[in-house]
Each structure stands twice: as structure tokens, then as C-alpha cells.
Design goal:
The chain has two domains: 185 residues, Beta-galactosidase, Chain A, domain 5, CATH 2.70.98.40; 436 residues, Alpha/alpha barrel (Glycosyltransferase), CATH 1.50.10.10. It has an eight-stranded antiparallel beta sheet with strand order 7-8-9-10-17-14-13-12, with no helix packed on it. A five-stranded antiparallel beta sheet has the order 3-6-11-16-15, with no helix packed on it. It is 25% helix and 26% strand. Helix 9 packs parallel to helix 11, helix 10 packs antiparallel against helix 11 and helix 10 packs parallel to helix 12. It is elongated, with a radius of gyration of 26 Å. Strand 7 and strand 8 form a beta hairpin. It is α+β, with helices and mostly antiparallel strands. It contains twelve helices and 38 strands. It starts with 64 loop residues before the first strand and ends with a strand.
Length: 703
């Protein structure tokens, strides 16, 4: 699904931070301006005029029930009725195909009593009403609505009256066939007139059409009012159902990619002492499956959309980061993502040759916008190298190797005899997280080149060593508290000393071989100090890691880069701290994020407010956060597998386990993972001892 990204406003500029509207675009490549204007996409019409923007930012989504099975969406409030207000409605490929679906029974709207998600792609709404005059205060009819992202809704009436009831059912329908970006900017357009069509209603414009059909067919259809009517006779205890099917004309039933038998994600399961663990992994995988997309030109290649509802199209950096975190579920998603992005790689002469294009991303008040293309280009060879060690077949690795080589060639050219990689190129600051991405790409890329007797590995390792030596001096700011890493160096070499969650990338240890970890950018003393800083209440909110420390200038607990808890960075901190041996700090962040996940029904949003946790409180949602989001869902996989410390080397036929010895969640068992192309199951005891229960034939346990 290539869904348009809404136009930016002063209040929601962060919504434009990551997702390009289409893969071939080159927005935000080095030397290009920050992309702010709305753009059309292949899936739908252009959004409304750039000047027509909401004065109060994006419509809130924090209380919405969002059913996702891309390219389908169904967005509802807790009332259950679709009124056409805000974002409510059924969507397909970025277009609202039904905005209004209001149910009346015996001329009255049911009283809502419950609304809940029943899966990533479905929600259930229950209402009641009193249909019998002699029933007293008790309701005697229950109206249940089950809504699916694939465009179906089942309305069920249940009678608990003592005598037969005649129940007239009326469903009022309407739509504007508006594009999501126009709806987000407050300019969806008027509701369209309907015509009676094939046991339902139809709407049409020169740019699109949609229809609703009903089973059983209605007794009456009134196009001018958009009404479908039925008359039902229900005996005591009787039940009757109506199913509505919403879809564009000519479109068949929507088959969500994640629900297909060919899903690239293994159906792993978790069990253990902590009852939150199974629900977290199950919900994470369900959300990942709901966000899967297929490259239309190459149907075998799948990748993840960034998140719903705002970023249902491809965002290269997010897609690569999420694929990397889900390698324990198999390498097929990584392979599809890499192949899809390799086709967008810039070729030919010039400084951008070899880049994976991506837009610029807002970085908060202290830094100019960064380039997600830089991040994606550096993630590409690292993901390929790690996927190979998890079991990516040799044929696919060789197929993708030339694209990885072009990324590494761009890296060396972008550094251009300089120690640090600037972002964006040219003239941008040297960001600490960019150096971490570059360092990992150089080391893992060199390992990959050596494995296939390709030149360049020695030069990459030498550059990485020079970067490491200089970084430990230039990026370390001494103070009375023991020092801290600088967030960036300006063009004139001045360090920016604010402490933010991007520092977690300095802990990201890339796997270079069985049981052998890459040397990090920080030395041991500096790493220990960073671990202490990340565990301090100024950074650890009790629910997760703040994007900007509470004591830093410009801190805002709702700021997406200025203090909100970003789930991806918290999970990376847990994994990095655990790998470096800082169990206490890792365990504290892990328990906080698990507590937050419980409040969000285990469907973690991409971010939430960084308010300090205290007794009796709950994490405050961010009103514009994507939920589900690919990186947040992938974090559920990363958090649990990080506790086991799986270090595979499929080419060598070995796997090493480095569990967190403090066992912060007690006993933990993971089944249905994949290593070396085969099922892999492992259990960690309460004493922190790991045992492999299932593995590929011939796979040896390394030391």
C-alpha cells in the first residue's frame, strides 16, 4: 500500500520525518531541501492544496481502534459507529472507501458498552438497547459489530426478550472517497451521492469508486439517504446477522499479505514466568504481519510499511531497521526488503551514487534535519552481513552483494579522506549515531567482502579503526559527572553536549563472527559511563528511555525528538546494555517498557510521553503516534531474543548463546524461531542458563 503522507504543519512536522511517499523518490538525498510539501503517490490522488492545513495539527489517533491488514485499514472510535468525522472509516490503498456506517435498531442507536481489538486486523463493538416496553430498565437486545480491515463488517442482533420481537434494522452509509492526506489536513470534500447497486449502494467520481453489498440483501435501499433497511423477526434467544462488504468496484476480496500461507515471518511463540511475555511476542508478530507490503513489480519481495495510519507506505530506514530486529523470525523479510531497496539505489556518476534514497527527518531543536537515506545506505550492508549469519541462502547473498558493495563505496567516498561522516552531505554536522551506523557498516561490510573474496575489506577496517580512535577523544565531553558522549560535532568541530536517546546506537554491537563481537566506538570506561547515564532517572522515565534527557534544554515529554519515549531506541538500549554486560540498567529499561506495553494492550506505539513513572500512573499516549508501527512491533522480538543472546554463524554451522545471567524476567522459552533456515527453540532458566531445545541438523553450539 502506497499511502500518501499528510502535509506538514507547524505542530506535526515530525509526521513528515521518515516516510517517503514512494520508493523511487530521491527526496532528502544529500544537498536537497527538507521535503515539506505534500506529494501524490501511485496509489491515490494528490492531496488538497498546500495552504489547506489543519490549524491544530493531525487528527488524534491515541484513542482510535486501528485495524490493519495492508493495503486495508479500518479506523474507528470506541463508540463503534462510523460517523464520517475525523479519520473514521474503511480505507483501501490510501483512499477512504466508506466514511459513514451508522446502525439503528427499532429507530435508536445502540448504547455502546464495549469496544476492543480482537487482532491486528479486527475489532469488536458491543451495544445494547431495550426493545420491549415491558422489559423494565434491563436491555433485551444486544448488537454486536465485528469490523475487519479487509473491508467486511458483520452486524449481529441477539434477542434476550421473553417473547418474539420485530426488529427493524437500518444502516446509514456514506463516503467522500477522500485521500488520507486530504482527511488529515481537514479538506476531505463533501459526501458523495449514492446509487442503488447490486444489493447495496455505490459511489463514484472520475478518480475512484466504491460500493457496499449486503448479505442478506436489504428489504429496501434508499439511495438519496444512503440507507439500507431490513425487517427481522427474532424468537426468544434468537440471533440474526448481516454482513457488509466494502470495496472499490471491481476489486476482489482483500488478501492481506501477512495472513497468507507464504508470510515471511515465522510464527514464533514465547512462554515463561512473566505472563506478559507471550502476549508481547504474539501481538508484535501480528502487527508485523499486518504491516507487510509486496513490491507490485516483484510480488515475491515483501517489506514492512513504517506504521499506521500515517506511514502506510515504504520508509527505507524503518524497513531495514525492523527487518534487522526480526532476523530471529527468519531471513525472508530481510531478503525481500534488501532486494526492493536495491532496485531504488542511485547509480551513475556523482556523490549520491550508491545511496538508498530517503527523505530528511526532523531531529529536534538542537540539530538540523538528518537524512534517512544516509541511515538506510549504512544499514543495507550491515543487514545483509547479519542476515547471512542467520541463514540467508548463499545464492541470495551473492545476488545482493553488488548493491552492498555500492553502499560501501559510497561510504568511503562520502568520508572522502575525512575521519567522520557528515549528515546530511555535504556540510552537515557529524552526528554520533551516524558514526555508529558507519562504523558498524564498515566492519560488517568488510567481513562480508572478505567472505566472498571481494576487495576493499582492509581499507574499511582501517577507516573504522581511525574513526574509533578519533571518536573516543573528539566525541567525549569531560565533566564532573564522569563525562558523556557528544550528540554531534558541528562543522567547525564544536561538540553539542545534550544527552539524548540516539546515544544508544553507540552500544550497538554488530556480530562479526561466532562468539566474537565488534569493538564499539566507545572504550570500556566510556561504555560504563554511558550505561550509568542511560539508567539515570533523567533518561529512564520508568517506562522507557526519553528521547532527550529531562535536564536538557528544550525537554518536552511529548516532543518526538525532545523527550518522548521512542520504543525503538529503548529496545536498542536494552539489547546493547545486555550485550555489554550491564544487566542492571538493561533490566530496568526492559521492565519499564514491558509495563508500558501492558497499558497499551501489548501493541506498543512508536512513541509515548516521557513523563516520570510513579505509583498508580500509566504512560501517557502521544496523540499522533503510529500504532502499530514496524519498528515498535519489531522491538518485541528484539527484547526477548536479546535476553537469550543468540549469536548465529550459519556459514560456519554454529550458534552461540549469551543469555543475560540475571534472568530479569525469570524463566523464558522461545519456540519457532529460525536459524540456518530451520526451526530453532531455546530456553533460559531462572539461573540464566540457556539450553537449545530444537535446531537445524548439524548446527553446533559454539563457545
Amino acid at each position: 500500500m502506497h499511502q500518501p503522507t499528510p502535509p506538514a504543519t507547524a505542530d506535526d512536522n515530525h509526521r513528515r520525518r521518515d516516510g517517503p511517499s514512494r520508493l523511487p523518490a530521491v527526496e532528502g538525498a544529500p544537498g536537497q531541501p527538507l521535503d515539506r510539501a505534500p506529494r501524490p503517490t501511485p496509489s491515490g490522488p494528490a492531496p488538497g492544496p498546500a495552504g489547506a492545513r489543519r490549524a491544530d495539527g493531525l487528527p488524534p489517533t491515541h484513542t482510535a481502534l486501528i485495524c490493519v491488514a495492508l493495503p486495508g485499514l479500518a479506523i474507528s472510535t470506541e463508540q463503534g459507529q462510523l460517523t464520517g468525522q475525523g479519520l473514521e472509516g474503511f480505507y483501501r490503498a490510501g483512499q477512504r472507501v466508506l466514511a459513514r456506517c451508522q446502525v439503528r435498531v427499532v429507530g435508536r442507536e445502540p448504547l455502546p458498552v464495549q469496544a476492543r481489538m480482537t487482532g491486528a486486523d479486527s475489532a469488536r463493538f458491543v451495544g445494547t438497547l431495550r426493545a420491549s416496553p415491558a422489559a423494565g430498565p434491563d436491555p433485551d437486545v444486544v448488537v454486536e459489530r465485528t469490523r475487519h480491515a479487509d473491508g467486511t463488517e458483520r452486524i449481529t442482533l441477539r434477542s434476550f426478550a421473553l417473547h418474539p420481537l420485530r426488529l427493524p434494522l437500518e444502516v446509514a452509509l456514506g463516503t467522500d472517497l477522500a485521500d488520507l492526506s486530504a482527511i488529515a489536513s481537514g479538506t476531505p470534500g463533501p459526501e458523495l451521492p449514492a446509487t442503488v447497486h447490486d444489493s447495496g449502494l455505490r459511489w463514484a467520481t472520475p478518480t475512484g469508486n466504491a460500493s457496499v453489498t449486503a448479505d442478506p440483501p436489504p428489504a429496501d435501499a434508499l439511495a438519496s439517504a444512503g440507507l439500507l433497511r431490513w425487517q427481522f423477526e427474532l424468537p426468544p434467544g434468537g440471533t440474526v446477522s448481516v454482513e457488509l462488504r466494502v470495496r472499490p468496484d471491481g476489486a476482489g476480496p482483500l488478501l492481506a499479505l501477512g495472513r497468507a500461507a507464504t508470510s515471511p515471518l515465522a510464527p514464533a511463540r514465547a512462554a515463561g514466568d512473566d505472563p506478559r511475555v507471550p502476549a508481547l511476542l504474539r501481538t508484535s508478530i501480528d502487527d508485523l504481519q499486518a504491516l507487510l507490503l509486496r513490491d507490485p513489480a516483484h510480488p515475491s519481495d515483501t517489506y514492512l510499511a513504517a506504521g499506521a495510519p500515517w506511514r502506510c507506505g515504504p520508509a527505507p530506514a524503518d524497513a531495514l531497521a525492523a527487518a534487522r530486529m526480526t532476523l530471529p523470525l527468519g531471513t525472508r523479510l530481510a531478503a525481500g526488503t534488501l532486494r526492493t531497496l536495491a532496485r531504488t539505489q542511485l547509480r551513475g556518476p556523482g556523490p549520491q551514487s550508491g545511496m538508498i534514497p530517503g527523505p530528511r527527518r526532523d531531529a529536534g531543536a538542537h540539530l538540523p534535519p538528518g537524512c534517512t537515506g544516509t541511515e538506510a545506505t549504512l544499514l543495507f550492508p550491515a543487514l545483509l552481513a547479519e542476515a547471512r549469519r542467520w541463514g540467508l541462502p548463499e545464492r541470495e547473498t551473492r545476488e545482493l552483494l553488488p548493491a552492498a558493495e555500492r553502499c560501501l563505496t559510497w561510504l568511503r567516498a562520502a568520508a572522502d579522506d575525512h575521519t567522520y561522516l557528515c549528515d546530511p552531505q555535504p556540510g552537515g554536522p557529524a552526528r554520533s549515531e551516524t558514526q555508529a551506523h558507519a562504523h558498524r557498516a564498515a566492519l560488517l561490510g568488510a567481513d562480508l567482502l572478505d567472505a566472498y573474496d571481494r576487495p576493499g575489506g582492509t581499507g574499511l577496517r582501517q577507516w573504522a579503526a581511525e574513526l574509533r580512535k578519533a571518536f573516543r577523544t573528539d566525541f567525549w565531553v569531560e565533566d564532573r559527572g564522569g563525562g558523556r558522549p557528544a550528540a554531534a560535532l558541528t562543522a567547525d568541530g564544536h561538540p553539542l553536549t545534550h544527552l539524548g536517546a540516539t546515544a544508544v546506537h553507540l552500544l550497538d554491537t554488530g556480530l562479526l563472527g561466532a562468539g566474537r563481537l565488534a569493538v564499539g566506538l566507545l572504550d570500556k570506561v566510556q561504555t560504563e559511563q554511558l550505561a550509568r547515564l542511560l539508567g539515570d532517572p533523567a533518561m529512564d522515565s520508568g517506562w522507557g528511555l526519553r528521547g532527550l534527557g529531562a535536564k536538557e534544554a528544550g525537554h518536552n515529554p511529548f516532543g518526538h525528538r525532545a523527550g518522548a519515549v521512542r520504543v525503538q531506541e529503548t529496545a536498542l538500549a536494552v539489547a546493547g546494555l545486555a550485550a555489554a554486560g550491564y544487566d542492571k540498567e538493561a533490566g530496568g529499561l526492559l521492565r519499564g517498557l514491558l509495563a508500558a506495553a501492558e497499558h497499551f494492550d501489548h501493541r506498543l506505539p512508536e512513541m509515548f510521553a516521557g513523563e516520570q513513572r510513579s505509583d498508580g500512573t500509566a504512560p501517557l499516549p502521544h496523540p499522533a503516534a503510529c500504532r502499530p508501527a514496524a519498528t515498535a512491533a519489531a522491538c518485541g522480538v528484539l527484547l526477548l531474543t536479546a535476553l537469550v543472546g543468540i549469536r548465529p554463524d550459519a556459514p560456519a554451522g554454529t550458534v552461540t548463546l549469551r543469555p543475560v545471567h540475571s534472568a530479569p524476567l525469570g524463566e523464558l522459552g522461545l519456540t519457532g524461531l529460525r536459524v540456518a533456515g530451520a526451526p530453532f527453540s531455546v530456553r533460559v532458566s531462572r539461573l540464566g542458563l540457556a539450553m537449545v531445545e530444537e535446531a537445524a541438523d548439524g548446527l553446533q553450539l559454539g563457545v
